[in-house]
């Protein structure tokens, strides 16, 4: 059971990358200059009429039209989406970094929700939840059998409402209930620590509204503790992306002024753009330049950027820019490969259209779409290797992904991945215990972080002997 859930969780990385995409917010729809296809619209009206009058049960007209819009958009690519009232609210919560809930970062372990970390100051933190706690029930609902999304939705709710969590604490071999009052939570998308004298770790988990401010604050704290910093590890592993301006700002923090960070190209004139490492490309209207507070040493500190196949979109922009300008060594695994920009166009106060409007390119002109950033140094996840590497999905594996030229879907690779999945699950089923979960990013057991620090210190690095670049389909057919 644990093996299957772990496999499902790894595959879900693709879904996360699609949910939090590199995007821009723009005003409502433009008028089109091309004539409407009247015959097809008449067919749509005819189908609507037939369903309304002939279907076995009465149907809601508004739902029919909403479903038609959603179907039209979902047929474009994996990242275009129609937002109804509910999904638009969830989307805005995701980009703002604010939501109403109990305040825990979670994962899944053996079918249960695992507390990775309670958010400092949150209701869960005050209630005494600890890293490693397992949630077995949410109110009267058993967690086993729920997906992570389903569990999250049950823990979220309205402010000042209560939820009872049943906790199993392995370290104490006991189960106990905790009643928590929900409140607005502000997610910390940036974490950092000085790992050892002279060397620091800075993790960006996604690019939200407050990410740049949090990033600057964490870097200031690092330099207060280590004024003569010798090396910095920028950790973008499993960062699914977010706001484009955040990616430009964080790249600009480490790059010379005015160099190109990323370019975009699409059908509309304003989708053809070049974003540079200067304040006008990331500064909020009327606000001060948040990067002005950073010490000048940030521009020159030796750097390693850690990425993996869960690094997508905005995190790929940062990795690609620092790699192209030879500002940092990129280490880890080939990234997700989401090289497209989504624009959110409000339709009503409560609904919107998220639509792919451009592809983006690194400063050297590389398209990342369906390929990703190839690391300078390949690293396994653990000292023992990559248990689940063959199973991970990327942009190129998603249905209807944007293709490059004559690129075609690689059915052979899909078949190989499915065979690898079945083989791995069979192997895991024969084991007495499930494989040990991967260590928490930034912990003392984080193998990739240790290798990144070795690189910064000039020590030997345990480079992967098995990982190789996954070519786009057009290069493998």
UniProtKB/TrEMBL annotation:
<dbReference type="InterPro" id="IPR001478">
    <property type="entry name" value="PDZ"/>
</dbReference>
<keyword id="KW-0720">Serine protease</keyword>
<dbReference type="InterPro" id="IPR029045">
    <property type="entry name" value="ClpP/crotonase-like_dom_sf"/>
</dbReference>
<dbReference type="GO" id="GO:0006508">
    <property type="term" value="P:proteolysis"/>
</dbReference>
<dbReference type="GO" id="GO:0004175">
    <property type="term" value="F:endopeptidase activity"/>
</dbReference>
<dbReference type="InterPro" id="IPR036034">
    <property type="entry name" value="PDZ_sf"/>
</dbReference>
<keyword id="KW-0645">Protease</keyword>
<dbReference type="InterPro" id="IPR005151">
    <property type="entry name" value="Tail-specific_protease"/>
</dbReference>
<dbReference type="Pfam" id="PF22694">
    <property type="entry name" value="CtpB_N-like"/>
</dbReference>
<feature type="domain" description="PDZ">
    <location>
        <begin position="88"/>
        <end position="156"/>
    </location>
</feature>
<dbReference type="InterPro" id="IPR004447">
    <property type="entry name" value="Peptidase_S41A"/>
</dbReference>
<feature type="region of interest" description="Disordered">
    <location>
        <begin position="402"/>
        <end position="445"/>
    </location>
</feature>
<keyword id="KW-0732">Signal</keyword>
<dbReference type="GO" id="GO:0007165">
    <property type="term" value="P:signal transduction"/>
</dbReference>
<protein>
    <submittedName>
        <fullName>S41 family peptidase</fullName>
    </submittedName>
</protein>
<dbReference type="Pfam" id="PF03572">
    <property type="entry name" value="Peptidase_S41"/>
</dbReference>
<dbReference type="GO" id="GO:0008236">
    <property type="term" value="F:serine-type peptidase activity"/>
</dbReference>
<keyword id="KW-0378">Hydrolase</keyword>
<comment type="similarity">
    <text>Belongs to the peptidase S41A family.</text>
</comment>
<feature type="signal peptide">
    <location>
        <begin position="1"/>
        <end position="27"/>
    </location>
</feature>
<feature type="compositionally biased region" description="Basic and acidic residues">
    <location>
        <begin position="402"/>
        <end position="434"/>
    </location>
</feature>
<dbReference type="Pfam" id="PF13180">
    <property type="entry name" value="PDZ_2"/>
</dbReference>
<dbReference type="GO" id="GO:0030288">
    <property type="term" value="C:outer membrane-bounded periplasmic space"/>
</dbReference>
<dbReference type="InterPro" id="IPR055210">
    <property type="entry name" value="CtpA/B_N"/>
</dbReference>
């Amino acid at each position: 059971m644990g093996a299957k859930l772990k496999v499902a969780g790894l595959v879900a990385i693709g879904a996360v990358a699609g949910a939090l995409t590199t995007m821009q917010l723009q005003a409502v729809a433009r008028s089109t200059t091309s004539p409407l296809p009247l015959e097809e619209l008449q067919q749509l009206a005819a189908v609507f009429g037939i369903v309304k009058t002939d279907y076995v049960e009465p149907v809601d007209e508004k739902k029919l039209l909403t479903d038609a819009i959603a179907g039209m958009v979902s047929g474009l690519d994996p990242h275009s989406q129609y937002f109804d009232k509910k999904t638009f609210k969830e989307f805005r919560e995701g980009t703002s970094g604010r939501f109403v809930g109990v305040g825990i970062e979670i994962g899944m372990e053996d079918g249960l929700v695992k507390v990775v970390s309670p958010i400092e100051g949150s209701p869960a933190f005050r209630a005494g939840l600890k890293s490693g706690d397992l949630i077995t029930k949410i109110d009267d609902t058993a967690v086993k059998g729920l997906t992570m999304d389903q569990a999250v939705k049950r823990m979220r709710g309205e402010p000042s409402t209560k939820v009872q969590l049943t906790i199993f604490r392995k370290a104490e071999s006991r189960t106990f209930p905790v009643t928590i009052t929900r409140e607005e939570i502000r997610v910390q998308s940036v974490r950092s620590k000085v790992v050892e004298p002279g060397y620091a770790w800075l993790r960006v988990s996604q690019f939200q509204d407050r990410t740049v401010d949090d990033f600057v604050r964490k870097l200031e704290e690092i330099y207060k503790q280590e004024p003569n910093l010798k090396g910095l590890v920028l950790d973008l592993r499993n960062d699914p992306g977010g706001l484009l301006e955040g990616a430009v700002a964080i790249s600009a923090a480490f790059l010379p002024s005015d160099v190109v960070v990323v370019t975009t190209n699409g059908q509309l004139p304003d989708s053809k753009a070049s974003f540079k490492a200067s304040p006008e490309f990331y500064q909020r209207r009327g606000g001060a330049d948040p990067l002005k507070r950073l010490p000048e040493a940030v521009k020159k500190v030796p750097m390693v950027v850690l990425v993996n196949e869960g690094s997508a979109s905005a995190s790929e922009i940062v990795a690609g820019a620092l790699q192209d300008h030879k500002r940092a060594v990129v280490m880890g695994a080939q990234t997700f490969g989401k090289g497209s920009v989504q624009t959110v166009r409000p339709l009503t106060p409560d609904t919107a259209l998220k639509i792919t409007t451009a592809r983006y390119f690194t400063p050297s002109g590389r398209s990342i779409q369906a390929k990703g950033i190839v690391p300078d140094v390949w690293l396994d996840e653990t000292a023992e290797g990559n248990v689940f590497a063959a199973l991970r999905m990327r942009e190129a594996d998603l249905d209807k992904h944007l293709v490059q030229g004559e690129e075609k879907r690689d059915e052979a690779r899909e078949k190989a991945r499915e065979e690898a999945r079945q083989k791995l699950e069979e192997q895991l089923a024969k084991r007495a215990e499930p494989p040990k979960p991967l260590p928490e990013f930034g912990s003392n057991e984080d193998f990739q972080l240790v290798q990144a620090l070795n690189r910064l210190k000039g020590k030997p690095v345990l480079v992967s002997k098995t990982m190789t670049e996954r070519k786009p389909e057009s290069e493998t057919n």
